[in-house]
Amino acid sequence: MREITVTPKLVVDGADAAIDFYRRALGAEPGVRHAAPHGNVAYAEFRIGASTLSIKDADEHDAAAGALFTLEVADAYAVGAALEQAGASVVFPVDDQPYGLRQGRLRDPFGIQWIVSQQTENLSEDEVQRRLGSAPG
Q1: Which one of 33, 56, 59, 125 has the minimum C-beta count within 10 Å?
Q2: Residue 1: its pLDDT value, please?
């Protein structure tokens, strides 16, 4: 079987502004960009680290829709601060969680939510369940 690759596509109001936001907040590198006849983005790509995402402007075929992505990072506090400084709003502040991660969630100006996640402990599944106070399954 051939290897499968999944590339998320974001549909937003203001794709060019979104790419610029991701460049400032997360160091995104813009790639190809194709405009529709009316000038809106029909298709564009950008890279964040080793990941490629695609994006387009909302139109009569595709409404702007939210999404939730997790960024695994070396410094969750720094990445959360960079997102906030670039214009994202805090949904949940970055903090140490009982399941061994330092995480927070921010919503960018385009409605996309980003979980910044930094591993702080190596825990077994049983230990995570114990700390969360619930039974597995």
Answers
A1: 125
A2: 61
Q: Label residue 89 by pLDDT band (50, 70, 90).
A: very high
**CATH value at residue 110:** 3.30.720.110
Residue 136 lies in a domain: no
Count other C-beta atoms under 10 Å from residue 6's C-beta. 4
Distance (Å, rounded) from C-alpha 110 to C-alpha 123? 35
Over residues 40-76, the pLDDT tens digits come to: 999 999 999 999 999 999 999 899 987 889 999 999 9
Indicate if 29 and 84 belong to the same structural domain: no
Residue pair 47/28 in contact (Cβ under 8 Å)? The answer is yes
What is the crossing angle of helices 76-86 and 15-26, to 10°?
Answer: 140
pLDDT of residue 65: 85
In the predicted structure, residue 118 carries a pLDDT above the cut 80: yes
Q: How many domains does the chain have?
A: 2
75 and 123 both lie in a single domain: yes
Can you tell me the distance from the alpha carbon of 105 to that of 70, in angstroms, rounded to the nearest whole number? 9
The domain of 6 spans 1-61
Q: Are residues 43 and 3 in the same domain?
A: yes
